[in-house]
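Researcher: Structure prediction, please.
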Amino acid sequence: MSKEYDVNSIVEMKKGHPCGFNQWKIIRTGADIKIKCVGCDRIVMISRAKFNKGLKKVIKK
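Model: Predicted structure follows.
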């Protein structure tokens, strides 16, 4: 699987958000990655390792 993503990419994670959406927009990258739910605009910060493990596919670069 391609791990090519950058800031403002839309990604799909293996586990969806409780609001029902499964798409996230990447806000910040680094050692931790900050993502925002496309459906409800909730912001979550997770480690890069956990993000890469949970990444399903990159929808839009």
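Model: The mean pLDDT is 91.
Researcher: Thanks, that helps.
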